[in-house]
Amino acid sequence: MRRVSIFGATGSIGQNTIDLIARDPDAYDVVALSGGANIAQLAQDARRLGADVAVTAFPEKLYDLRAALAGSGVEAAAGPVALVEAAARPADWVMSSIVGAAGLAPGLEALKQGATLALANKETLVCAGPLVLETAQAHGARLLPVDSEHSAVFQALVGEDMAALERIVITASGGAFRDWPLEDLETATAEQAARHPNWTMGQRITIDSASMFNKAMEVIETKEFFGIEPDRIEVIVHPESMVHALVGFRDGALMAHLGAPDMRHAIGYALHWPERRELPVARLDLAVLGQLNFRAPDEARYPALRLARHVMARGGLSGAVFNAAKERALDHFIAGRIGFLDMARLVEAVLDRFESDPGLIDARLTLDTVTQTDHLARQRVDEAMAKRAG
Ligand code: NAD
Ligand code: MG
């Protein structure tokens, strides 16, 4: 039996992971499940899967979780420290599917235990790529990509010589506002941004798809995961989301990975790797599909892509600044306090301010420096907003 833990079990990726695991219950021994405010879901899954421990991220929910687990034999725990403790429990395979920088600490802890970390939480690599890779290497742990584009690239590279790799092309649906007139974006609402044309995902990543902050983070994730120079990573808008990524080799060959937009493919690939097993995903019928479209991304529409290039060139803790400023700006957008295009403006202003202080940006990358930088960047988003208001 494989020991598995799922961090962010109640979310979109977490539930898809549980869907796969629950189809073959005898194959898995579930160690830890984590969630947030949805205690009923967390408790139900922990009972059903016979988890050793269930952890809610929120300390004030511990009482509810205990009550929901009464008599089940599943331990209840709460808070960020309990999350890291749960990640320290021995497991063979750990799904990292918390949303946001909160996923970094439990992911690092799982790597320290030598677990295979299936990484949906792209923030982990954006905030602390070099630290995460070093930690994995030091502890003989393996990282497997779950983001659909990165899983596609990973699969296209099987058996290939990395020295022959020329470029990586990741596709972007263009999000909810792909075809909106630019001038309407200023007044777009969170509710409108949260309607993705092709994928069903959590609210935050769906809005990040509309702004392409999601794609911007994925470009950085590509650089960190595959160790490729930024100028060899391309983004192409592909409205159908059937081609997830393409890999170009020095002989001119371009290998594409296609599949229905269903995250159970990438999750299942990471779960069964290096084997390929039968997965409950729709098969593509190319004749029905008829055609696939591609177009260059418009940088005026998607300033986040330009900011990602800047972050990759700058390095150091600028990824942690970028991610945290984006997360905070997104909080404000969801709450209706700022406009859609203000998110990129705020992130850029905060990046600029950090850059005038190289002592901060170039500090050594550790969990502590990343966490401190994360807090400071969020604070600076609030300060920039107060300044605009005043
Ligand atoms: P989601 O919002 O549906 O779920 C997020 C999970 O994280 C929930 O279990 C929630 O309880 C938990 N959580 C939220 N805040 C937390 C905190 N502060 N501390 C601890 N746990 C917390 O998100 P999702 O769409 O499943 O995305 C999860 C991650 O996977 C994100 O990093 C996202 O970018 C990435 N991802 C998602 C998809 C997708 O199809 N949904 C695809 C590729 C990558
Ligand atoms: Mg993706």
Give a verbal description of the structure.
NADPH binds at residues 10-13, 36, 38, 121, 123, 202. The strands form 2 sheets. A 7-stranded parallel beta sheet has the order 4-3-2-1-5-6-7, sandwiched between helices. Strands 9-8-10-11 form a 4-stranded mixed beta sheet, with helices on one face. It has helices spanning 12-22, 39-49, 62-69, 80-87, 104-112, 123-138, 148-156, 182-185, 190-193, 203-211, 213-226, 264-272, 286-289, 303-314, 318-334, 342-355, 358-361, 367-389, and strands spanning 2-7, 28-35, 53-56, 75-78, 93-96, 116-119, 142-145, 165-172, 233-237, 243-249, 254-258. The protein has 3 domains: 2-145, Rossmann fold (3-Layer(aba) Sandwich), CATH 3.40.50.720; 150-259 and 268-289, no CATH class; 316-389, Orthogonal Bundle (Rna Polymerase Sigma Factor, Chain: A). It contains 18 helices and 11 strands. The protein starts with a strand and ends with a helix. The longest helix has 23 residues, at 367-389. The protein is an alpha/beta fold and 390 residues long. Helix content is 48%, strand content 15%. Helix 15 (318-334) packs antiparallel against helix 16. Bound molecules: nicotinamide-adenine-dinucleotide and magnesium ion. Nicotinamide-adenine-dinucleotide (NAD) is lined by residues 8-14, 35-36, 57, 97-100, 102, 120-123, 147, 199, 201-202, 204-205, 263.
